[in-house]
Design a protein that fits this description.
75% helix; elongated
Amino acid sequence: VWDGVGAAADPAAGAKMKRRGMELQRRACANGDVLACDAAARRASADAFATLSESPEAVDAHAALRRACALDALDACEVLSLQGEVDPNERRSFREKACALGDAKSCFGASSEDLRAREEMLLKRDCDAGYGAACRELADYLDLEDAPREEIESARKKARISIVAACRAGADSCYEAATLLEMGVGGPPDDKEIQAVLEIPCRTTGFCGALAERLVKSNDPKARARGLELLQREAKDSGKR
């Protein structure tokens, strides 16, 4: 059947032998032979990452991987832990098993997953408690994790509301609030609200530069006049300092 240099002299006969070999592997795997399961899974590794319904070979490959992992084949557990077709909770269990079987990379992946889950839980807790910075970090975290868009936008909206509220309550977050409002984070840009939050540090600390720069760009003559007045005052005060 073979020509002695690795090529099939009779392609049809070679294909038949290959199918026969795969069938014997599947049978041995079904009877609990871990090496056969592992070999079958490796042989169909390309199909193993395909959609389950795409081909009978893919279904066979996934079944072989699962049987091999159940029989403590490390490589099979590791492959399953990386497959997007597998339920996330199952992927985690496969990763933990690969870790238990001695794969340091899977152990690191499992521990990193634990840390990420804890980080998300703490950020959600602090965000729900009204801490705007936590909401902002939560939104960034969810974005990196490719979370559903509505979850990301919800966190951004909470960040905007909380940081603006903190500014109005006297916390040192008014410039951050103005930035969020101007960039349209968690909602559309709001010029009126931006001016309102910049008025607060101008009134309470005397630092009016940001407000002045905004007012001089206004279409309202009175607002522009006030902006110029504030800029002149800022320049005079900085000269004294």
